[in-house]
């Protein structure tokens, strides 16, 4: 996140995302990967970075339509991912499965999965 000049590497964003992931027993890398696909990890120099960082998951369509705070949006994103996975077949790709209802772009999952693999390697 620091290498990408991401506002999400700073507080309160980083800790809020980690805590939401823990609360829902979800790997936090999944949530960060979604922010990578949705908002390029919210670069600090982005014109609306302080507003985008409140909802970098674009829950309820977009950060513009639903501008809340990072705690709320990360909890909603985590809950949504878990709910969407509740009926996932064992042989399904979880990123592709979540894509069915999380995003309008049918290739959204490819970006999220790619970010996940990249971030996961860095944490090993």
Can you walk through the features of this model?
It contains six helices and no strands. It is mostly helical and 124 residues long. 34% of the residues are buried. The longest helix has 16 residues, at 70-85.
Largest sheet: none
> Which percent range fits the helix content?
40-55%
Number of helices: 6
How far apart the termini lie comes to: 15 Å
Return the string of H and E elements. Answer: HHHHHH
Based on CA inertia axes, which overall geometry fits? Answer: globular
Write out key terms for the chains shown.
6 helices
Task: Give a quick summary of the entry.
The protein has 124 residues and is mainly alpha-helical. The chain has 6 helices and no strands. Helix 2 (28-39) crosses helix 6.
What is the secondary structure topology, with strand pairs?
Blueprint (H helix, E strand, L loop, with lengths): L12 H11 L4 H12 L9 H4 L17 H16 L8 H9 L5 H15 L2
